[in-house]
Design goal:
Blueprint: H1 25-37, H2 48-61, E1 65-69, H3 74-82, E2 90-94, H4 100-107, E3 111-115, H5 126-132, E4 137-143, H6 152-162, E5 165-169, E6 177-178, E7 181-182, E8 189-193, E9 206-210, H7 213-222, H8 246-277, E10 283-285, E11 299-304, H9 306-309, H10 313-322, E12 327-328, H11 348-352, H12 365-374, E13 375-379, H13 386-402, H14 404-413
Parallel strand pairs: 2-3, 2-4, 4-5, 5-8
Antiparallel strand pairs: 1-9, 6-7, 8-9, 10-11, 11-13, 12-13
Helix pairs in contact: 1-8, 2-8, 3-4, 3-7, 8-13
The structure holds pyridoxal-5'-phosphate (PLP).
């Protein structure tokens, strides 16, 4: 076996993995048609493409009233505001996620209460949610992280007992299902991002799925400068312009047509990968809960044994990337995010409630271990490169295992 590419050897793979996003004539025709229609913007909301997309998206997810908007961060802010959650209310969020999940409650004026994750799935730990509930807790935002789903049975039971609003951050989970129910349709709200990396993308965009029709009317009002959206035309809200443009919606309709096939392709390749992964030394697959009946492959995360590879995940990812397999270490723990570092930004909530933002004294052992030592994040493109693309990934990891002493030396000298 030649030496590691990190140390100057030949990489396992020189061919790049497929690019994302992909497009075809359907996207060009859809956008051209939208441009020619003269109806580019989102006013009056919803425009015809947006309304059609909303209908098709909720049909695809299997429920909910869909309210498309500008991105998958404001979706969560709007959900909280529609539910009347704001100043001084506590919203429980997981420590392992993109910062948007935590920013959204702050944007609504609420306080994010960060809790740890389940070591087997890397999604929010229901026990930690239970322990964090106080008389100010109004909502919990769960994140269906990477190819996983949070334990929705446990979360819904806790929420029912304590009267909490449940928001599913399904930015990674378009098309996923829990006991046959679509992600984002189980809780009160489901939040989806359509940003360029996502498996269903329009460049930028977001969709809020609302279980309750009245919540959907309020959400639509909030994103359309407060104009009433109820049948009587009477309920004004405090709103701003977060409308989605018709050009984006046109792209969304084309993307939705292609999505089921891409979804199947990625899921099949993930199954194929798992057959080999379980045989690789020092590698652990996250738990596949049998209630998670349909997986959505946005990112795929595995754990490495730092003891076996004689290094932490940053060196592992550097070495595997040098072999031509693009992997990274994923998100930091929420309390280490830049979002909270520039304290001079005067975000209203941290300033008013400093006791909730004492990052030095926060500790989320499971998230810290995942984010600072052992998680390896793969991109969706690996799952669109056929069996050969997956085989190269497996060969790359096997090469690292065979040369783990070199990884140890590299770690010591860097
Ligand atoms: C878990 C999660 N939530 C929310 C978002 C925010 O989505 P957007 O970029 O559309 O605002 C992202 C985007 O990366 C995400 O990964």
């Amino acid at each position: 076996m030649p030496e590691l590419a990190l140390l100057g050897g030949e990489p396992i793979r020189t061919k790049p993995y497929p690019k994302w996003p992909v497009f075809d004539q359907r996207d060009i025709d859809a956008v051209t048609c939208a441009i020619q229609s003269g109806r580019w913007g989102g006013f009056p909301y919803p425009g015809p493409n947006t309304a059609k997309f909303a209908e098709k998206f909720s049909e695809f997810q299997g429920g909910g009233h869909a309210v498309p908007m500008m991105n998958g961060t404001i979706t969560m802010e709007v959900a909280l505001r529609a539910a009347g959650i704001g100043w001084g209310d506590e919203v429980i969020v997981p420590a392992y996620t993109f910062q948007a999940t935590t920013y959204a409650p702050m944007a609504a004026g609420a306080i994010p209460v960060i809790v740890d994750i389940d070591p087997e799935t890397y999604c929010i730990d229901p026990q930690a949610v239970k322990s964090a509930i106080t008389n100010k807790t109004k909502a919990v935002i769960v994140v269906h992280l990477a190819a996983q789903m949070a334990n929705m049975d446990a979360i819904m039971a806790i929420a029912e007992k304590h009267g909490l609003v449940v928001i599913e951050d399904a930015a990674h989970a378009h098309g996923a299902q829990w006991r046959g129910m679509g992600s984002g349709t189980i809780g009160d709200f489901g939040s989806f991002s359509l940003q360029s990396f996502k498996t269903l993308t329009t460049g930028e965009g977001g969709v809020l799925l609302c279980k309750d029709e009245h919540m959907a009317e309020r959400a639509a009002s909030i994103i359309d400068c407060g104009r009433p959206k109820d049948a009587q035309g009477e309920e004004y809200t405090m709103g701003v312009n977060y409308r989605w443009s018709e050009l984006h919606a046109a792209l969304g309709l084309a993307a939705l047509e292609r999505f089921p096939e891409q979804f199947q392709q990625r899921a099949a390749m993930a199954d194929y990968l798992e057959e080999s992964l379980s045989e690789l030394p020092g590698i652990h697959i996250l738990k596949r809960d049998l209630r998670h009946t349909r997986r959505s492959l946005y990112r795929y995360v595995i754990k490495m044994e730092t003891g076996f590879y004689h290094c932490k995940h940053d060196i592992f990812c550097k070495a595997l990337s040098a072999e031509g397999i693009p992997v990274d270490t994923g998100y930091p723990s929420m309390h280490r995010y830049e979002l909270f570092q520039p304290r001079l930004s005067k975000l209203a909530v941290p300033t008013a409630f400093p006791e909730y933002f004492d990052f030095e004294n926060m500790s989320f052992p499971v998230t810290e271990r995942a984010s600072e030592e052992e998680s390896i994040w793969m991109g969706e493109s690996i799952f669109r490169a056929g069996e050969e693309g997956v085989d190269d990934l497996v060969k790359g990891i096997q090469k690292l295992a065979d040369h783990r002493d070199d990884l140890s030396e590299y770690t010591e000298s860097h």
